[in-house]
Amino acid sequence: MWNLPNILTMLRIVLIPVFVVVFYIDSPWAPYGAAAIFGAAALTDWLDGYLARKLDQTSPLGAFLDPVADKLMVAVALVVLLQADPRVLLALPVMVIIGREITVSALREWMAEIGARAAVAVSNLGKIKTTAQMISIVLLILKNSIFGPWIYDIGIALVYVAATLTLWSMLVYLIAAWPSLSSEAKKN
Questions:
Q1: Quick check: 81 pLDDT over 90?
Q2: I want to staple 162 with a disulfide (CB 3.0 to 4.6 A). Which of 75, 97, 105, 133 is the partner?
Q3: pLDDT of residue 185
Q4: Number of H helices, E strands in the chain
Q5: Once rounded to an integer, what is the mean pLDDT over residues 38-53?
Q6: CA atoms of 82 and 155, how far apart (whole Å)
Q7: Which structural domains are found in the chain, ordered by start?
Q8: Full 3-state SS string of 77-129
């Protein structure tokens, strides 16, 4: 149960409050520290899955915790970023990304209940979406850094790419689940 992949996943969860504290520290180094913490957490998201498969250490705990840790880290980062820049420009993609995560999580849970979880398994599109999200969040965190405002502009553009991929992947999952969703409705 406590293998290296699961420890990395737990580390990602533990880093969430550390990220928040560092994000809000009134210091010129805070954006760099918060970006580094988020970046490290994002790397553990990739690394724990890779190691679990490579070392044959997949587990029910890891299968449960990995997506939870990922969604918590992304949602918390997006919320603090939106609090720091409460404009519609950022609110729209944040709403789409968090809303999609809730919708797809509920869909996966329901599909698992009816024994059709494989129909909504993580796809390559979901992995590309996650990568775009992670990079955009790091760039958005670096808003008040030496890189200047252009890094934030790139982050905004990339978070819109991530939000678009988010909607697209949600649509793919809903289409895959539609036969189960519509057949269940006919039975009731």
A1: yes
A2: 133
A3: 47
A4: 6, 0
A5: 87
A6: 13
A7: 4-187 (1.20.120.1760)
A8: HHHHHHHHCCCHHHHHHHHHHHHHHHHHHHHHHHHHHCCCHHHHCCCHHHHHH
